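Morning. Coffee machine broken again, so started the prediction first thing and wrote up yesterday's gels while waiting. Chain of 184 residues, entered below exactly as on the submission form.
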Amino acid sequence: MSQSELPELGEDRTLLLVDDDEAFLRRLAKAMEKRGFAVETADSVAGGRAIATARPPAYAVVDLRLEDGNGLDVVEVLREKRPDGRVVVLTGYGAIATAVAAVKIGATDYLSKPADANDIISALLSDGEEMPPPPENPMSADRVRWEHIQRVYELCDRNVSETARRLNMHRRTLQRILAKRSPR
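Came back before lunch.
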């Protein structure tokens, strides 16, 4: 999506980004500013709720899992303060149940990480009538599996034994997987 395609944004180009991954948040904020958005960022549920209450944006991108709680709490405040706003929920741990919950409380769309700025803009600006195009570079099945294992490993505070137990996997098998580089 190029700069010339942005007039469909309208007058209010305010965008709230809520994510606890600092590097991702900075990159996404810079990319969205280049595309004409007036960006505000928050790295927690509390920060996102505060901005949503004080200055409700026209657009928002909210991570589902944040260190201090659930991003859906921010979505609820956004819906309450700005019913016409468009909200996209992002997560590195996609599941159908959470996608349904996000849409039920008012999210416009739901994307799995890693999502780039163009995917996010397409989701923010879609009218919901047509299906979005499939991603140009979808993750391989091996990469999806590796991402899932990494996520569970992080949620278990990098405890190999606990991660193996939760994944119903032998500890040594998990150690071999963790020692390898990520698949493409």
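Residues 141-179 form a domain with the Arc Repressor Mutant, subunit A fold (CATH 1.10.10.60). Going to sketch it on the whiteboard this afternoon.
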